[in-house]
Specification:
The protein folds into three domains: 2-90, Alpha-Beta Plaits, CATH 3.30.70; 104-220, Oxidized Rhodanese, domain 1, CATH 3.40.250; 240-296, no CATH class. 29% of the residues lie in helices and 23% in strands. It has eight helices and 15 strands. It has helices spanning 16-29, 52-63, 114-121, 134-137, 156-163, 180-191, 203-210, 275-295, and strands spanning 2-10, 33-39, 42-49, 72-78, 86-90, 110-112, 126-130, 140-142, 171-175, 197-200, 218-220, 222-223, 230-231, 241-242, 249-250. It has a five-stranded mixed β-sheet with strand order 4-1-3-2-5. A hairpin with a 6-residue loop joins strand 12 and strand 13 (230-231). It starts with a strand and ends with a helix.
């Protein structure tokens, strides 16, 4: 059983590149896999380990970094390795919005606990906005939530500018997978003059973990950025697969649809890539299969 930890924390790192060597060394020592992003604004990522003890050591290391004592995380489990290797990357932002004036450390919306979320989002004076990308929203969201239909988080400010008139005199409730995007999007809205902004503390993952399915207003599955592809209530692995051509989630039955070729394309992307792209993907798939056979 693998322990999976999704985490993030905004902090001031003067030299994030100096934090990488010891963090990567510890992860490799503990057989941790996944990805951690370091930037001047903090840390973000998802990792997995063969034991709770292993991931606890990494969490302790992260909490010892400047300003990270209050780092929070979500825990789930999987029977198979959710990642292939460990990566620690230095980035400009730990979640890319492209708005240099946005600073979650200067203020965010009001945090709402999962147990209080349903009462908030069912109020007539509240508009609920899903801040995730379109392919994530497609497989699950909260009932009644607005889908901005963005392909990347960086498109959200432009979408808001074009659609803000729709939310006049409304309180805004926002949510995302683990909470990090809402830290930025709520700070952005506060900077745009929106007074009443709320966001789901711990994101969808914490909601699915803590709120019983019988009381849930969540509809569908939640996309996750690891080999599980999606999770359900109780953070149980979902049934979705990942198209390695476009990185979108698909259902098992979609493998029978026209356009599907393992590792190359699915019905969503078969007409979006060139034949040269497909040849490249086929070669990648061939090499992956050879590597897997060598391991066995």
């Amino acid at each position: 059983m693998y322990t999976i930890v999704a985490l993030y924390h905004f902090a001031r790192f003067d030299a994030p590149e100096a934090l990488k060597p010891s963090l990567l060394e510890l992860c490799l020592e503990e057989n941790i896999t996944g990805t951690l992003l370091l930037a001047r604004e903090g840390v973000n990522g998802t990792i997995a380990g063969p034991s709770q003890t292993a991931v606890d050591r990494v969490l302790a290391h992260l909490r010892a970094l400047p300003g990270c004592a209050e780092l929070e995380h979500n825990i789930s489990h999987a029977d198979v390795p959710p990642f292939g290797k460990m990566k620690v990357r230095i980035k400009r932002e730990i979640v890319t919005m492209g708005q240099p004036d946005v600073d979650p450390l200067a203020g965010t919306g009001h945090y709402v606990a999962p147990q209080d979320w349903n009462d908030l989002i069912t109020r007539d004076d509240v508009a609920v906005i899903d801040t995730r990308n379109d392919y994530e929203v497609a497989i699950g969201t909260f009932k009644g939530a607005v889908d901005p239909e963005t392909t990347s988080f960086g498109e959200f400010p432009t979408w808001w500018e074009a659609n803000k008139h729709r939310f006049h005199n409304k309180k805004i409730a926002m949510f995302c997978t683990g909470g990090i995007r809402c830290e930025k999007s709520t700070n952005f809205l506060l900077g745009q003059g929106v007074e009443d902004v709320y966001h789901l503390k711990g994101g969808i993952l914490k909601y699915l973990e803590e709120v019983p399915q019988a009381q849930s207003t969540w509809d569908g599955s939640c996309f996750v950025f690891d080999n599980r592809v999606s999770v359900e209530h109780g953070l149980k692995p979902g049934t979705h697969l990942l198209c390695h051509g476009c990185r979108r989630p698909i259902l098992p039955e979609d493998t029978e649809r026209d356009g599907y070729e393992a590792g190359v394309s699915c019905h969503n992307c078969v007409n979006e890539t060139t034949e040269d792209d497909k040849m490249r993907f086929r070669e990648r798939q061939k090499q992956m299969a050879l590597t897997k056979r060598r391991k066995w």
